[in-house]
Amino acid sequence: MSLALIVSAALLSAPISFAPPPVPEVWLVAGEIYSREARREAQQALNHFGYDVGTPDGIWGPRTQAAIRQWQTDNGAAPRGDLSRAELGTLLDGYRQAIGFEGVPQNEATRTNVTTDAALPAEVLAVVDDLVSFCGGDRATMIAREGLVLSAEMNGDGRPDYIVNGSEAGCMSVCGAANCSAWVIASNGQGGYVSNAVLGIALQPSTFSCGATGSCEFARPN
């Protein structure tokens, strides 16, 4: 018997086992990519606000979907059972403020969604222009995208600071498997701004703690 036949016979007689596929660390939900950590925090937020999902595990099963539908109904949205990026940002922003994240500015309620380039710092416009080069279109159209540029006072010096969310740019060129590029652009106390490159989805001002020199980092729970 040839070696090839011996090998073939051995392969055919060997038991074949199939391992179940691993739980994906990144899921596509409502057409959006969310990391498992983002899904877990969303579940924690739902539990905190009284929408019972059980133990947060990052898996959006029927119980979590039912909780999301109820949260959407109570907040005037269509009860779909999944979360858009804007909804996820709203849910997590409210949760992080409720549990006392550091870095939530006193005037968080004055956060605005910027839709024109009027008076935007050069550092913000440079980031927007980079997004245009990756995703196409023009500056005005890019800035007008809901949730792309957010403005809030974030470091206590009275000047507006900014977040540019690559997740809202409308293309995947600035996104990886679990997160998208984003920029926190804070005033530096000397009349200019510092651009801090980070990764995240639909980031909000309360996500960050910024210092007087314009450096920013993800805020930590108290």
**Distance linking N and C termini:** 73 Å
Helix content: 25-40%
Give average pLDDT, whole number. 76
Strand order of the largest sheet: 3-4-5-6-7
- How many H/I helical runs? 6
Note the run of SSEs as H and E: HEEHHHEHHEEEEEE
Radius of gyration: 22 Å
Structural class comes to alpha+beta
How many strand segments? Answer: 9
Q: What proportion of the residues form beta strands (DSSP E)? A: 15-25%
Outline:
globular
Q: Low-confidence runs (pLDDT<50, min 5 residues)?
A: 3-32, 101-111
Main beta sheet, described? 5 strands, antiparallel
Could you describe the 3D structure shown?
It is a single chain. The protein has 222 residues and is an alpha+beta fold. 32% of the residues lie in helices and 19% in strands. β8 (208-210) and β9 (216-218) form a beta hairpin. α2 (36-48) packs across α4.
Lay out the secondary structure:
Blueprint lengths: L2 H11 L12 E4 L2 E4 H13 L13 H13 L10 H14 L13 E3 L7 H14 L3 H5 L5 E4 L8 E5 L14 E8 L5 E8 L7 E3 L5 E3 L4
Antiparallel strand pairs: 1-2, 3-4, 4-5, 5-6, 6-7, 8-9
Helix pairs in contact: 2-4
Question: Which terms would index this structure?
Answer:
single chain, 222 residues, alpha+beta, five-stranded antiparallel sheet, two-stranded antiparallel sheet, 6 helices, 32% helix, disordered N terminus
